[in-house]
Amino acid sequence: MNLNEIQDLIKFVAKQKVTEVEIEKKDFKITIKSEKEEVHVAHVAAPATVQVAAPAAPIAPAPVATSPAAPAAEAPKTEDTSNYITVKSPMIGTFYRSSGPDADAFVNVGDSIKEGDVLCIVEAMKLFNEIEAEVSGKIVKVLVDDASPIEFDQPLFLIEP
Fold first, then answer.
1. DSSP assignment, residue 81?
2. pLDDT per residue over 108-143, tens digit each?
C-alpha cells in the first residue's frame, strides 16, 4: 500500500464518518481511528462558554464593541476572497508551517510561490505529508495556526493567482 492509497483511505474514512477502519494484508496492517465526536463536543463547549460569560460579566460592552468591528473587517475579506484560490487540507491531521520547531516556515504572507512548492506539512498517523501548491501566485493569508489540528477539506491558505 503506497502513500496515495493511505491518503485516499483517510479521506474515505473522513467522508463516511466511520470511527475505525482496519485493513490487514500479507506484510501490511493499518488501523485508522477517527475522533470526530470529541471535536464536536469541543466546538459546542466553546460557544456555550462565550455566551455564559458575556451576559454574566459586566464586561459585555467591550465584546459588543469589538464584535461590530470584527464583522466589518470580515465583510471586505469575504468580498476579496472571491478573487483568491483557497488551498484546502487533503486529510485530517496536524498542520505545521515548517519542517521543525527551529526551521523557518515554508511560506509566509506575501511570498510568491509556484506550482509544486511545499506550503506546509500535515501530520497524519505519524506520517508527515508535504502539501504542495497546485497553482502559482502570492500567499495572501494563512488561515490555520501552526501545530493546530485540522480536518479534511479545511481551508489552509488563500493564494492570489
1. G
2. 999 999 999 999 999 998 899 999 999 999 999 999
CB 154 within 8 A of CB 88: yes
Residue type for position 85? I
Contacts of 149 (CB under 8 A, 6+ apart): 39, 93, 94, 95
The C-alpha angle with vertex 151 and arms to 68 and 21, in degrees rounded to 5, equals 155
- Tell whether 72 is covered by a domain: no
Q: Using one digit for the tens of pLDDT, what is the confidence trace for 8-57?
A: 777 777 777 667 777 777 777 777 777 654 433 333 333 443 444 444 44
Contact 86, 160 (CB under 8 A): no
The CATH number assigned to the domain holding 157 equals 2.40.50.100
Domain annotation covers residue 127: yes
User: Domain range for residue 11?
Assistant: 3-34
How far apart CA 111 and CA 142 sit, in angstroms, is 11
Number of domains the chain contains: 2
